[in-house]
Structures are given as structure tokens and as C-alpha cells.
Amino acid sequence: NFTKKNLEDQKIVNSKMITLNNFFKDIDYKNKKILLKSDTQGFEMEVLKGAEDVIDCISVIQIELDFMKFYNNQSSAEDIIIYLYTKNFSLRGFTYPPGLNEFGEILSSDFIFYNNRLKIGL
């Protein structure tokens, strides 16, 4: 039923944003296993770029990526995957079920990336 929802702006709400760099600034995150789950409706690249200082300490990233452009200034799934590869993350899986349209085409899915620098031990 997801694909039957109206994805146009329903209401615009201004909210305060903080980068992950600033969020983790006062937290002792070294030597911890960190899972970053991101479902930010087309804002994924900005979230990742806001984590530049801490991304090496993130063990696993689960991020929703779209195969179609739904939002203004949205990065493509390919751009996000390439960006994470440059940060030494490898794609390890997908969540199921993906979002499908009425023709059975995959619209989006959560992608799971592991940090190649860390021994995750999952």
C-alpha cells in the first residue's frame, strides 16, 4: 500500500538539524560498535557528509535508498553506494521486502553496508 500514498508535500515543517559530527562530539564512541540507521527521505548524502569526522567509527550502516527520484536534490542510489565505497564500506545486503510499485518494479530498499576497517563480529 506504500506506493498508493501521495508522496507530494503534505505540510512543510521547519526543524532544527544537527550533524552526526556534532551529535557525537561529546560522546565517547571509540571502540564501540555503532549501527547507523538512516531513513531520511532523499537527504541521505547530506546525513553521510555530516558524519565525515565519525564515519570511520561506524560499524554498520543501514540506509534506505530509492531507485527513482522522489525528492528535490535527492542523490541517486548509485551515488550513495559509490560514496560509501570511497569511505571503505562494502555492500553486504538488503532488507526485504523492498518498496514496489503496481508493476512490481523495485522503488526502494534498505541497503546494509559494513565498515571494512573494523572487525564487526556480527
Quaternary structure state of the chains depicted: single chain
Low-confidence stretches: none
Mean pLDDT across all amino acids: 85
Gap between N and C termini:
33 Å
Backbone structural class: alpha+beta
Q: Which shape, going by the Cα principal axes? A: globular
| Beta-strand content bin | 15-25%
What's the main sheet like?
Answer: 5 strands, mixed
Give the SSE string. HEHEHEEE
> What is the number of helical segments per DSSP (H or I, 4+ residues)?
3
Amount of helix = 10-25%
Q: Give me the count of strands.
A: 5
Question: Over the alpha carbons, how many angstroms does the gyration radius reach?
Answer: 16 Å
Quick synopsis:
This protein is an alpha+beta fold and 122 residues long. It is built from three helices and five strands.
